[in-house]
Amino acid sequence: MKLSPRVRQAVTPLRAIMAIYIVAMLVMMFLAPVLAPYDPIAQNVALRLKPPLSEGHLLGTDELGRDILSRIMYGAQIELFIALGATLLATVLGTLLGLFGAYFNGVAEFVTMRLVVDVVLAFPPIILALLAVTLYGPGSVTLIIAIGVLFAPIFARITYGQVLSVKREEYVDAAKTFGAPTILIMFRTVLPNVSAPIIVQFSLTMAAAILLESGLSYLGLGVVPPAPSWGSMVAQGQRYLTSNPHALLVPGIVVVLTILAFGILGDALRDLLDPKAKKRS
After folding, report:
1. Per-residue pLDDT for 6 more than 80?
2. Cα distance between residue 269 and residue 203, in whole Å
């Protein structure tokens, strides 16, 4: 099958590799109990800090003798669940704020874009995340809500700017002329025509959410132990960097590759969905 020039431009070997990597992470997310060779929290001190490819442990063991590969797989389940939940919350909340603010203007714009979006954007995300986790305690639900609220303003800004230009188009005026309900115009006419940059931002926010969750878990404010988290694995492994570097390097490389993969996917979606987008060096 012959691909269009835009598709050929968007699909490069590196992007294809990163897409395969993301698919592999998603498979781990759903099939971790089936694919993991060991119990991720089962301890065996006799096998502590074994190097990769030793005694049936492909990626070695940590300081408590737990299989690192199994913890990576279960960690993918937790990390991607939190990142996906937070990104979905941010997408829905931010899109609604931007859509209503841009379409109605006036008081609606002041409330959504000034009182809500600008106030949240005034604070660094990590500070607000730390505050939320400190007040309500660590856990998956707290992280999803906190990260989702923190990234919602980004989607609100994007939607707001897109709707301002789309709502003046002739097909929107035609829908109004034929007496279509306002809600129907917003969600059936305007929203589908501003969805491309929102989809791109969804992938980029996934990367940012994974980074933020890993950072909180690294500080001990993320996923509650003994549940495996990539950030907590990095924190535990750094104590053995000189003697057993694999305990730090393996989860660290997984975090970096996952963030990079979603970022590259966002670039590919931008080139595919937005023909006007030009890559900058």
Report:
1. no
2. 8
Contact 217, 229 (CB under 8 A): yes
Gap between the Cα atoms of 199 and 155, Å rounded: 10
SS3 state of residue 207: helix
Mean pLDDT across the chain, nearest whole number? 88
At residue 13, does pLDDT exceed 60?
Answer: yes
Residue 166 has pLDDT above 70, yes or no: yes
- Residue 199 in tokens: 């989809």
**What average pLDDT does range 179-191 have in this prediction?**
89
* Residue showing tokens 């737990």: 66
Tell me how far apart the terminal alpha carbons of the chain are, to the nearest angstrom: 31
Tens digits of residue pLDDT in 53-94:
887 889 999 999 999 999 999 999 999 999 999 999 999 999
Q: Determine phi and psi for 84, rounding to 5 degrees.
A: -65, -45
pLDDT at 20: 94
3-state SS, the chain, equals CCCCHHHHHHCCHHHHHHHHHHHHHHHHHHHHHHHCCCCCCCCCHHHCCCCCCECCECCCECCCCCEHHHHHHHHHHHHHHHHHHHHHHHHHHHHHHHHHHHHHCHHHHHHHHHHHHHHHHCCCHHHHHHHHHHHHCCCHHHHHHHHHHHHHHHHHHHHHHHHHHHCCCHHHHHHHHCCCCHHHHHHHHHHHHHHHHHHHHHHHHHHHHHHHHHHHHHCCCCCCCCCCCHHHHHHHHHHHCCCCCHHHHHHHHHHHHHHHHHHHHHHHHHHHHCCCCCCCC
- Please name the amino acid found at residue 187: F
- The band of 201, judged by pLDDT with boundaries at 50, 70 and 90, is very high
For the domain spanning 5-35+60-273, the CATH number is: 1.10.3720.10
Q: For residues 198 and 191, give the distance between their C-alpha atoms in angstroms, rounded to a whole number.
A: 10
